[in-house]
Specification:
This protein is mainly α. About 65% of the residues lie in helices and about 0% in strands. Helix 2 runs antiparallel to helix 3. It is elongated, with a radius of gyration of 17 Å.
Length: about 80
């Protein structure tokens, strides 16, 4: 792919090269998070944002903030319930 083709593609992601770079980086990190290849903490670290901002970002992108299957949820509930 030629440099001009890459430059043309980047225009879909932002007005400036810096904005395009940030948008593409964010999309890549969110995709890794969605595929469970990185944690939300690692995603926040890669994007240089705090955990609350990360939670808002992933929620806005439709990525569950708490993504537990039924067994994991039952275990968390069991550990947290008063004895």
């Amino acid at each position: 792919m030629s440099t001009s083709a890459i430059d043309d593609l980047l225009t879909f992601f932002g007005d400036t090269p810096e904005h395009a770079y940030q948008t593409v980086r964010e999309r890549l990190v969110l995709d890794l998070l969605r595929r469970h290849e990185i944690s939300s903490g690692r995603a926040a670290e890669l994007l240089g944002i705090d955990r609350l901002t990360m939670m808002r970002l992933q929620s806005a992108d439709g990525i569950p903030v708490f993504d537990l299957d039924a067994e994991e949820f039952a275990e968390e509930f069991r550990l947290r319930s008063p004895r």
